[in-house]
Write a structure and sequence with these properties.
heterodimer, A: Fumarate Reductase Iron-sulfur Protein, Chain B, domain 2, 4-stranded parallel β-sheet, 22 helices, 45% helix, B: mainly alpha, Arc Repressor Mutant, subunit A, two-stranded antiparallel ribbon, 2 strands, 48% helix, binds iron/sulfur cluster
């Protein structure tokens, strides 16, 4: 936990570059800045190469004998297949516009966390092996040879990038360093060099449908608890259905929504909202995960894991899919699902059964974001809301990287929040919307052994929260991403301990006036509604 | 992965000291793990929580949510931290021989 890191230990940031040039500065694996390697059993489960026991601090990483050939062939294959990769390798003019835009550089000071240099780690090998100038001129041309030190460097820095794409917003050429990181991780995966925090959820997902490895009976146990809590707080007994054939809508959300705090309060919000609407929908114990850690592994893995969404929709015969408050799931759904798993022509173009609104933007994927769905309900006056029930909360909103930069979904969450809360305050402009700062723990970095790097990378976000906390007494940080709900909680504990983290539909749950409810004296967490601010400890 | 001596037997543990094979757990192993998690003596209350975790794990193959754990054992979160200073997820689950959870948690 973050407490192990001393308070203020990270305030001093050393921006002084190392004495030698970057090619001559090898990586040093220091606890708190790297992630444990994938367990052999998880790699075996997924049929991924080179399962073995090893540690990044070992001198010998036990790479396959022909590892160089594997990397070069892997690069060649990807340069041919993904035009973007080839273009990104060629067109960077090293203008430096991106250099100070990455939160890991801002909070850590390591020059190799400047996006331009992160990309250069792989570009230098590209030049040395795939360009005539690089082959002849070598270092003068910024080219270098592939050595085991290069592999170690890739591992270190491609897992200090959260694939958040903030840098790409500022690049005049639109170079997306996140995609370069993704390529780097794919190449490393060919050698069996990957991290357990990503590969274990992937293996779990493959086995049980979700990251945490929750089997159907355990899932039911969780729902029983949430339903009991809802009854306790509202007096209303809800009976959702699971795996129900013929339902109109299939609902898919990250498993952390029903298996972790504070996600479960958001999940209780979904349950209450759908009940109140009388929505004809079903949960699935198979498509029981919206998240897709395949995105942090390889394109092949994205496809393998994501296939269950359409497969389950088809099996149950639903008309369309509604998706919960997840971040990277929407990057996959929005930017990859149609091509990788589609076309889903067995589904219908989504129409809200409550308002009749056609979700034109979901025409191709047939999958609607819950923020769009709920905002549309509010706009059409379909919900009775009492924002006063959230009056003890002073709320700000963190745009999660993927919904913001991959989907451009900025207005809907704010519209909902402003309708269910009376006290809403924006963080400074250059830290929100498409310029939002990452939580510091996305893309598979959200594990405890990575704590120092997470707290450093999350520092710019925490700073902005501190600002609204000081200025407006903000005590709640809202977000719509399950990784955020976990990582921002830790980040706040470290940097701004008076601020707690919340999903949007938790706020909806508090404000939603339900038919036949008893007088609400506690919020959905079971804490007094009318408490003085600041006293909302969990 | 490293092997360490816990309660008289050699057991494989991961980087954070969680035992790799939950079936090798015994009360003796738990005692030994407790001393690594700032729990000098295992009281009846400690055992109640640890046994609850084992039962839950055996039934569901996963650790319970912390809130559920508090509810079912009637130990509130504050007291849980008094019992297990390194926390319910890290401390109590480790002593009970459960694996570390992964994902968006
Ligand atoms: S902003 Fe774009 S072109 Fe400029 S250095 Fe960064 S990646 Fe290269
Ligand atoms: S994608 Fe995000 S984390 Fe990666 S280099 Fe760019 S700004 Fe940094």
């Amino acid at each position: 936990m973050a407490e192990e890191l001393k308070k203020d230990a990270l305030v001093q940031i050393d921006y002084k570059p190392p004495k030698k040039g970057w090619m001559d500065t090898p990586v040093e694996f220091r606890h708190g800045t790297y992630i444990y390697p994938a367990r052999a059993k998880n790699l075996k489960y997924l049929d991924l190469p080179n399962p073995r026991e090893w540690s990044p601090t070992d001198e010998d990483w036990k790479l396959p004998e022909n590892w160089k050939e594997i990397v070069i062939n892997g690069m060649k294959e990807r340069l041919d297949k993904y035009r973007s990769f080839k273009v990104y390798m060629d067109i960077c003019v090293r203008c430096g516009a991106c250099a100070d835009k990455c939160q890991f550089f801002i909070g850590g000071g390591d020059p190799k966390n400047m996006p331009v240099l992160r990309a250069e780690l792989i570009r230098s090998v590209y030049r040395g092996n795939f360009t005539a100038a690089g082959k002849i001129l070598g270092r003068v041309n910024g080219a270098r040879k592939l050595t085991t030190d290069v592999i170690k460097e890739w591992f270190y820095y491609f897992y200090q990038c959260t694939e958040c794409r903030r840098c790409s917003v500022f690049c005049p050429y639109g170079i997306d360093t996140a995609e370069i990181t993704m390529m780097g991780r794919e190449l490393l995966t060919l050698l069996g060099v990957n991290v357990n925090w990503v590969i274990e959820p992937v293996a779990n997902c493959y086995r049980t449908g979700n990251h945490l490895g929750i089997q159907p009976h355990a899932l039911m146990d969780m729902f029983e608890m949430m339903l009991d809590d809802i009854k306790d707080r509202t007096g209303i007994k809800i009976e959702p259905t699971f795996n129900r054939k013929g339902a109109e809508i299939l609902f898919i959300t990250p498993s952390a929504d029903y298996f972790a705090e504070p996600g479960m309060y958001t999940c209780m919000g979904y349950l209450m909202l759908f009940h109140e609407l009388g929505l004809d929908y079903t949960w699935s114990t198979y498509a029981s995960e919206g998240g897709n850690f395949g995105l942090f592994t390889s394109h092949e893995m994205i496809k393998r894991l994501n296939a269950k969404m359409y497969a389950e929709a088809k099996r149950l015969g639903v008309k369309w899919i509604l998706g919960g408050e997840c971040g990277h799931m929407w990057r996959v759904v929005h930017q990859y699902m149609g091509t990788l798993n589609g076309p889903a022509d067995f589904l219908e173009e989504p129409v809200s059964p409550i308002t009749g609104t056609k979700f034109e933007n979901a025409k191709s994927t047939k999958m609607v974001h819950i923020a769009e769905f709920t905002a549309d309900l509010i706009k059409n006056n379909k919900l009775r809301l009492d924002p006063g029930r959230n009056d003890k909360l002073r709320v700000t909103f963190h745009d999660s990287c993927n919904p913001a930069r991959a989907m451009g979904i900025f207005e809907e969450p704010r519209y909902i929040i402003k309708n269910v809360c009376n006290n809403f305050f924006e963080m400074p402009e250059n830290t929100t919307r498409e310029q939002t700062f990452c939580c510091g723990g996305g893309a598979g970095l959200g594990t405890d052994e990575m704590m120092e790097m997470r707290m450093r990378g999350g520092m710019p976000r925490a700073n902005a929260v501190q600002y609204v906390h000081d200025k407006h007494d903000v005590n709640r940080l809202t977000c719509m991403c399950a990784i955020d709900r976990a990582t921002l909680t830790t980040l706040m504990e470290y940097w701004v301990p008076d601020v707690k983290v919340t999903g949007i539909h938790e706020l909806v749950a508090n404000a939603l006036v339900m038919k036949g409810e008893k007088e609400r004296i506690v919020d959905i967490r079971g804490e007094p509604l009318k408490e003085e601010k600041g006293g909302d400890n969990v | 992965m490293a092997k360490v001596n816990l309660g008289g037997i050699e057991i494989e543990v991961d980087e954070d000291g969680f035992i790799v094979d939950p079936t090798l757990w015994s009360e003796k192993v738990a005692q030994a793990l407790a001393s690594t998690e700032d729990v000098p003596t295992m009281t009846e209350e400690h055992w109640k929580v640890v046994k609850y975790l084992r039962d839950y794990y055996q039934k569901y193959n996963i650790a319970p949510m912390i809130r559920k754990m508090c509810k079912d054992t009637q130990v509130d979160l504050k007291h849980m931290y008094e019992l297990f200073p390194t926390g319910p997820a890290k401390g109590a689950c480790k002593i009970a021989g459960l694996p570390k959870p992964t994902g968006c948690v």
